[in-house]
Amino acid sequence: MIPIPPRPRNPIELNQRYLRTIAAPSKNVVDGLQVIVGVTTHGDNLNLDRCLGSIASQKTDFNFGIVLMVDRIGEEVSLDCIPSSMNESLWILQGNCGSSAGARNTILEFVEKEVTNAEWVARMDGDDRFATPTSLAVAVKAAETTNVNYVIGGNNVLDNKGKIKRVNYASENLKNPQWVLDRLESMANYTAPNEIPSCNLLVAAKSGIRYPNMKSAEDHWLVVDLLINKPEQVTIIPELLFTDYTENGEVSQIERTRGRHQSSRVALANAAKKWVEVNRKKGTILGLGQEGIVRLYSGQVTKYFYPNKIDPKKIEWFSKILSECGPHIPNAIFKKSRTDDTYTANYIWEATSDSNEMDIDEIRKFLLFCLKRNVVCSNIKRTNFRTLGTGELVYIDVGKQIIPMDVSYFRDSAARLYAIGVLGWSDWELLRRPTDSVKPRIWDNLPGFSEFYGSIIEEHLQGVMSTLPSKSEVKVKTERNDVTLLIKACAMDSSYAEEQIIHIVDQLTLATEFKERILVIDSFEGPFIREHNKGNLAELIEIAKKLMYRGVLDSFLIAPKTRSEIKITYTQWFALSCSETHTVGGVPVFSQLWAFDQVQSRYVLQCDIDVLVGKYDSKHDAVGEMINACKEENILSIGFNIAHDPDTEFKPYRAPKGEFVPEVRCGLLDLKRIRRCLPLPNKTRNGKLTTTWYRSLQQHQHEYGLCSLRGGAPSSFYIHPTNERKTDKVFLHKVRDLVSQGLVPASQWDCWDLNGIDSEWKYLPRNEDIVLFARGKDTSTNRLKRFAESLAVQDDQDFGVIVIDDASDTMKPSDLYTKLEWLGERLTLIRNNANRGGMVNHVDAISQYCFRKTSLITVLDLDDALFGRNVISKLKKLRKRGHDVILGAPFRPDSPTAVYHPFFDKPREKWGGDVWIHLRSFTKEIFDKVPIEYYKIEESWIDKCTDYATMVPIVELAKNPIYLPEYMCWHKRTTKMNPESRMEHDWTIKKILAKPRMK
Fold first, then answer.
1. Dihedral, 437, 438, 442, 446 alpha carbons, nearest 10
2. 82 near 52, Cβ under 8 Å?
3. pLDDT single digits (tens) 450-482
4. Whole-angstrom Cα distance, residue 402 to residue 379?
5. Cα–Cα distance measured from residue 373 to residue 755, given in angstroms and rounded to the nearest whole number
């Protein structure tokens, strides 16, 4: 297994420099300036008057100006200490540079862009001063006469009271690499008589030089780089004392306290040794940075890492990652040096150009590549990119700044790349750093970035979903314009009519689109034979109207009561004069025959409203099979199959001559052939028919050798619940839900009526290592599709799924099942017929259907989706490593740049500490330890903020929680907050967090 190097912890947020100009000279003055003195300060004005006074006293024969960079935002800048003689040639800049290097580079960048006639820039800190009135003039003259880009002089070293402690001359020895190495080593050991005179630098304004972005010793690093790698561009003036440098300045003291002072000097000494070593080799130096120096020789690019700058574990990770990263990252091969404990990275040189201008499409491709490869190239600046002849961006900073995916760093690197490549901002405008008093949301200041970033993530996710297993494909329905679906109902059915009609239509239209879907209502209001409910005709009619409005039914019919209508129908069907709607035994006849006469198609699939229709395969076209079986002229009808063992083979449709009785509960009738048989045999007694229409048709079959078939594939079937089992609505709903999923106990096989004891009708238990649990209500089709597809694309399919739909009103019951049917026995689907609330569903699902204590329960919403192909495999790896709570980063398309940082330690003190985020996983064992009272407030189930209520106590009980900062969940919030709901939301969270801490 390739070890994954650790990710950065608790990253500092990306912030903007917010550079603004407080004061500036006139254009005429600016155009005449040859030299700029750059001064950096944190705004405390400590010794700033001394510094500025020394600048004002400089005697020169050229015009110079001052750029004062105040590295602090949110505070007013005092101008009291600025000499009046400087006002006409002074800029005052303010911003959040975040470091000494950032502030100095801001000045260099400003001069390049805004003071285009300036030739030289001298740097000073706010607590420094020029050593003599001629220091600046001497340095500029030396630069011009020697035709170089850099001048280095000496300095006096002052204590924090301004007194000279010693003199640090710029010796010619600085051009001797070995002398420099010895001095750096003694600096690292605190035995040097003086440090490298790094504060006394004059640079050519258009040299393009920048200070390395370091917390300490950035000035030493820059000067030593010049002395060793560009000595021909440097002039040293031994006799010049350029500045008075305050050794014990505030920043230096802080760095010493933090330990950075020595570590930065040790790192510089190590780097300088490597520079000297590589410079002695043949080839061309392409560049260097804070972790290595890069050389080109004989078509090979080699990066030489400094000691202790790259971890061996990361090398192993790189060896896997970078081998497949072309062209966007060089395919580097890492080797350990034979002479010291350092490494090199080698790759083939390719012709490229600079990336000062970047195409937005190439930026998009590069970021999509990073998402696909699950890496972040975090050191974003123009010099770290090159452009191939084909246009692709190549990130050339091969090293520790390439890190495993961390959404916080990825978002920030995308923002910086967008800022420099699309907006044309400075490399230094966006950096990770703390702010003092102002912390605005950076994303609001990047025009178009949130939309751009969101589109990148969406495009990546669509790419993941683009290749789906064939098992997730949905078969197109067969249109049957020659078949009408007719559901027969009476007043006694009103209590369950709505649910039953929706169920029947939903199940029977999974593979078939009928010419019409009609409900026929018998207007008879009792008394009924085998009465189980008094019924309500008016209620049944209202239900029919409602379902027509929803599109479940195309129409409904109410059988007339007039004697003339009844007589006309009976005359046609039986050649009898009768006006009673029911037989002598109380069986309804008229309403059904009258309904058959209203049907406009050849075939009618007629069924009682109480039948339960099941399918082992939702794509099975049972109606098509039945019509194909009707080809022989002697066939009048075909009965819909009953439940059998799903593994049995197709039974050919058959019937003995004259048989069987047409299936009245659920069967297909050929009305064209039946009408040829009219009138059917029947009699009357006491003014009523003696025989039902289907028994009468059976008699006709016997007489003329006709038949009604039975048989077919086991894939589709119906079950008839007896009247005594209809009284338990909860049980009947459960059976209806199970039947529609093909979950039928063996005791039901080969039986027409509902069979088996109640305990045999049950949802599938879950015992997998990983169990996904999702719940929702009225989830849109597109989001259901996304949810299902995100499961289908997982490279590890060894997981179970529990889904609870909490009584949706706008979606069909089959919408969920048909999209998840391919899961087979890995799916536990529960479709409530009444809203129970998120918390009840959460508790019931895990407590009633998950049985292994070691199972990892992963909670989603039905409108969520797993992000990527390897979410399951990642969860399994983390579980095997002993993690009992696993959180993954969500992507929110409604807020694309939102990033969360979960806190596992005392989340109640941090308003939940983001432990509620999607995706969240925990073991069944931890769930079982949380008392049920934690899910209630004042004896009532918590119905809002259930994610807080469930996760806070679970995290408190966790022994080894982990947050994986990779996108693992697509989560779009749908809850809209207004002031009232926000108050209720916050009140609920306060109540949740006020509960005792779990121990």
1. -140
2. yes
3. 999 999 999 998 888 776 554 444 557 899 999
4. 8
5. 55
| Confidence band for 438, pLDDT divided at 50, 70 and 90 | very low
Q: Over the range 233-260, which residues count as b (16 or more CB within 10 Å of their CB) and which as e?
A: bbbbbeebbbbbbbbebeebeebeeeeb
Question: Within 13 A of 540's CA, how many CA atoms are on the CB side?
Answer: 29
Would you say residue 372 lies in a domain? yes
Distance (Å, whole) CA 328 – CA 369 = 8
- What is residue 723's predicted lDDT score, i.e. its pLDDT? 87
Whether 516 and 440 map to the same domain: the answer is no
> Do 716 and 698 sit in the same domain of this protein?
yes
Q: Give the pair of three-digit tokens for residue 776.
A: 């929702």
Whether 5 shows a pLDDT value over 70: the answer reads: no
546 & 484 share domain: yes
Q: What tens digit of pLDDT does each residue of 218-258 get?
A: 999 999 999 999 999 999 999 889 999 887 645 455 445 55
Q: Residue 747 domain-assigned?
A: no
- Contact (Cβ atoms closer than 8 angstroms) between residue 504 and residue 615: no
**DSSP per-residue letters across 680-724:** PP--EETTEESS-HHHHHHHHHHHHT-EEEEEE-TTEEEEB--HH
Angle between helices 449-465 and 407-421 (to 10 degrees): 120
Q: Is 824 left (phi over 0), alpha (psi -120 to 50) or beta?
A: left
504 and 651 together in one domain: yes
Does position 888 have pLDDT exceeding 80, yes or no? yes
pLDDT in the model for residue 318:
85
Rounded Cα–Cα distance for residues 811 and 787 (Å): 15
Query: Please, what is the Cα angle at 449 between 448 and 455, to 5 degrees?
Result: 95
CB of 976 within 8 A of CB of 877? no
Rounded Cα–Cα distance for residues 347 and 334 (Å): 9
Cβ-contact 592, 616 below 8 angstroms:
no
Q: Is 475 left (phi over 0), alpha (psi -120 to 50) or beta?
A: beta
How do residues 356-385 score in pLDDT, each as one tens digit?
889 999 999 999 999 999 999 999 999 999
Residue with tokens 């301004």: 162
Q: Which domain, by its residues, includes 39?
A: 18-279
User: How many distinct structural domains can be found in the chain?
Assistant: 4
Task: Dump pLDDT digits (tens) for 632-659.
Answer: 999 999 999 999 999 999 999 999 999 9
CATH of the domain at 81: 3.90.550.10
What pLDDT is attached to residue 264?
87
Q: Which pair of structure tokens corresponds to residue 235?
A: 């002039």
CA distances from 143 to 66, 135, 175, 237, 407 (A): 19, 13, 16, 10, 48
The angle, 0 to 180 degrees and rounded to 10, between the axes of the packed helices 360-373 and 407-421 is 170
Tokens representing residue 763 in the block: 């949802």
Q: Are residues 832 and 911 in the same domain?
A: yes
Among residues 406, 440, 465, the one where a domain terminates is 465
Indicate the residue type of 939.
E
The reply to whether the predicted model has a pTM over 0.70 is yes
What number of H helices and E strands is found in the chain? 28, 44
Residue 12 has pLDDT above 80, yes or no: no
> Do 112 and 257 fall within a single domain?
yes
pLDDT score at 44: 65
Report the distance separating Cα 132 and Cα 109, nearest Å. Answer: 27
Strand ranges of the sheet holding 827-832, from the earlier edge strand across to the other edge: 827-832, 800-806, 770-776, 856-861, 920-923, 885-891, 961-970, 865-866
Among 415, 439, 465, the domain-final residue is: 465
Mean pLDDT of 597-625: 95
Per-residue tokens: 767: 């015992």
The answer on pLDDT for 46 being more than 60 is no
Is 582 part of a structural domain of the chain?
yes
Cβ-contact 294, 303 below 8 angstroms: yes
- pLDDT value of position 158: 87
What's the pLDDT score for residue 437?
A: 45
